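Narrative of accomplishments. A recurring question from our advisory board has been how the design workflow behaves on a single, concrete structure rather than in aggregate. To address it, we present the structure tokens for one chain from the evaluation set, followed by the sequence designed for it. No filtering or post-editing was applied between the two.
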């Protein structure tokens, strides 16, 4: 079973540092203890090697008596003898006081685990916890054997003191690492603590906060930068989601309102026809005409919504060189048929590229001619709807370069100086308030509802088509002076060339339009 671990990073760092420091200290102390013990043991072995019992000290040998009073050795040496038969003799030479227990020796020489001339360690008699003895065996006269032993009390004493010193030092080091390391780790992790507190505040709802970054060259600083970048993206995505949801709710409400009006009319007139079969024929025809008109309006509204959804999901696939001059002339001809009393003129764009004699020039752009024709038709329909009957509508076509001062609109801004194709639809109407100008391209938005309003999707469709072609639809308006809708499209990469006949419808009404 694993023991409990600290939950905090600071606790883990302190624990790891304390364990490593204590382990290193103890390892060093234990290594020193082993070296000191080996050195002391070598000193004892050297003393044993320099002492060899003379022949006179062996029991039964002729010669002078052994040194010391009463045959005792004046040192810590103890000497034991085995006779010629290998039996341990009771006579021995030992220290003067005789109070220290000697080494534990076997009764038979054959059981003695000592080789000639090689020291070994023997246990002590009596207390097994007492210090052992270092012993050396010598071959004596008459096949006798002597065992010389020295106690290891000094070696064990020094080793024990060093061991306790090492343990105490390890404990002091552990306590110091825990106390001082806790403060050092707390100080070092202070930037991470600030990041943690800021993250908790952000989790609680303070989404506008950023993680503090003290030093971007550190790990915590790089973490803070990464978190701030992630927070910026999350905030941007959240704002986009909220804006998209708001636009979707507004769009659904407007679409429901626009669809409810013709549906209510259809339902009302249908119920009238069912409940009053005795209506006169002219009233019945009027009811049928109103039902057809409401159904047509609802059908056109659904078609416009489907076109907007298609433009938002699928980019323009079909592209070919399109003559904007021909499209503008066809759009003017169609508007002139629907509104024969309107004054609509086709003019060149007043730029440096205009010819000296003021004639119209062919302006080509790559795109879908049908969708671009719908854009021009929507712009002209919008101008006719919001311009008085005596007002004048001018359509200008030409090529120029993008400027650095854009007007309110929809679509990507072309870099200044980029060649662009321009179609302008200007009117002499009341104009649009500058506060409403950025919203005229929204779906179902109408700045000035008329008694018979449209669906409010014409400019939204025109802006979507322009954006799908990589262009832009702008509005330049002054209240009381009229409005100018400007369609900017990328110019064709090749020089103007003669297009195929099927790509440019022939404009037969162009001379008449110039006269008007």
């Amino acid at each position: 079973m694993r023991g409990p671990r600290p939950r905090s990073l600071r606790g883990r760092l302190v624990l790891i540092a304390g364990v490593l420091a204590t382990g290193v200290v103890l390892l060093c102390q234990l290594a020193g203890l082993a070296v000191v013990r080996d050195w002391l043991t070598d000193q004892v072995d050297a003393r044993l090697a320099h002492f060899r019992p003379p022949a006179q000290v062996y029991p039964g040998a002729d010669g002078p008596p052994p040194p010391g009073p009463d045959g005792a050795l004046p040192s810590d040496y103890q000497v034991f003898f085995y006779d010629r038969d290998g039996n341990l003799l009771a006579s021995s030479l030992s220290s003067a006081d005789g109070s220290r227990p000697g080494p534990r020796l076997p009764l038979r020489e054959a059981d003695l685990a000592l080789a000639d001339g090689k020291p070994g360690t023997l246990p002590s008699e009596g207390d097994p916890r007492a210090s052992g003895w270092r012993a050396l065996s010598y071959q004596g006269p008459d096949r006798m054997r002597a065992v010389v032993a020295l106690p290891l009390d000094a070696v064990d004493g020094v080793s024990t003191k060093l061991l306790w010193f090492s343990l105490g030092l390890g404990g002091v080091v552990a306590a110091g690492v825990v106390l001082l390391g806790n403060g050092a780790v707390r100080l070092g992790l202070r930037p991470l603590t600030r990041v943690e507190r800021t993250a908790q505040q952000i989790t609680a709802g303070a989404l506008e906060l950023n993680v503090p970054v003290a030093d971007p060259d550190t790990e915590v600083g790089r973490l803070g930068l990464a978190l701030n970048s992630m927070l910026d993206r999350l905030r941007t995505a959240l704002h986009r989601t909220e804006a998209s949801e708001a636009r979707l709710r507004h769009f659904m409400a407007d679409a429901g309102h626009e669809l409810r009006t013709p549906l209510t009319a259809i339902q009302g007139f249908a119920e009238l026809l069912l409940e009053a079969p005795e209506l006169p024929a002219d009233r019945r025809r009027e009811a049928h005409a109103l039902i057809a008109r409401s159904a047509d309006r609802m059908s056109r509204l659904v078609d416009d919504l489907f076109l907007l959804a298609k433009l938002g999901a699928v980019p323009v696939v079909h592209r070919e060189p399109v003559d904007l001059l021909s499209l503008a002339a066809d759009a003017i001809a169609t508007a002139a048929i629907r509104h024969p009393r309107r004054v609509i003129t086709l003019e060149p764009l007043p730029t440096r590229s205009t010819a000296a004699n003021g004639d119209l020039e062919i302006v080509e752009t790559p795109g879908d001619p049908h969708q671009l024709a719908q854009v021009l038709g929507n712009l002209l329909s919008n101008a006719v709807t919001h311009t008085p009957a005596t007002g004048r509508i001018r359509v200008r076509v030409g090529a120029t370069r993008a400027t650095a001062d854009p007007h309110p609109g929809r679509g990507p801004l072309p870099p200044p100086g980029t060649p662009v194709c321009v179609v302008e639809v200007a009117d002499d109407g009341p104009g649009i308030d500058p506060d409403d100008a950025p919203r005229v391209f929204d779906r179902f938005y109408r700045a000035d509802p008329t008694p018979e309003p449209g669906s409010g999707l014409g400019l939204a469709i025109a802006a979507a088509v322009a954006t799908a072609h990589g262009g832009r639809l702008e509005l330049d308006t002054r209240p009381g002076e009229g409005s100018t809708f400007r369609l900017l499209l990328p110019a064709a990469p090749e020089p103007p060339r003669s297009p195929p006949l099927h790509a440019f419808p022939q404009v037969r009404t162009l001379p008449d339009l110039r006269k008007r």
